[in-house]
């Protein structure tokens, strides 16, 4: 009896976004970290994506977040990342400086 191996063809895409943020009312690293902790938790819960602070750790007015999600359709990934960006833009304690999205 031969083992038959089925070849499963699938397409996995990765959506990534880097977003630079400014905290106008932050007066210390502790202020910034409290805001970041809250926003990261809300992003994860609402959108089911991975999010991490990836740069400007020691600056108390700025940070860069990295956001990632996987899927099998480019349109889905674009929609998720755009929804995350809109969500972040509507937060009162921060300002979006710029962002970049990429689908791999």
Give structural notes.
The chain contains two helices and four strands; from the N terminus they run βαββαβ. It is an alpha+beta fold. Strand 2 and strand 3 form a beta hairpin. The mean pLDDT is 92.
Write the layout of secondary structure elements.
Elements: E1 13-22, H1 29-47, E2 50-55, E3 62-71, H2 74-89, E4 95-103
Antiparallel strand pairs: 1-3, 1-4, 2-3
Structure, briefly:
This protein is of the alpha+beta class and 104 residues long. The protein is built from 2 helices and 4 strands. It has one domain (13-103): Alpha-Beta Plaits, CATH 3.30.70.
Average pLDDT, to the nearest integer?
A: 92
Strand percent estimate: 25-35%
The CATH H-level homologous superfamily: TT1725-like
Termini separation: 41 Å
What structural category arises from helix and sheet content? alpha+beta
State the share of residues found in helices, binned by percent.
Answer: 25-40%
What is the name of the CATH architecture? 2-Layer Sandwich
Largest sheet, in brief, is: 4 strands, antiparallel
Q: List low-confidence stretches.
A: none
Q: Looking across the biggest beta sheet, what order are the strands in? A: 2-3-1-4
CATH topology: Alpha-Beta Plaits
Write the H/E string, N to C: EHEEHE
Essential attributes:
Alpha-Beta Plaits, four-stranded antiparallel beta sheet, 2 helices, elongated
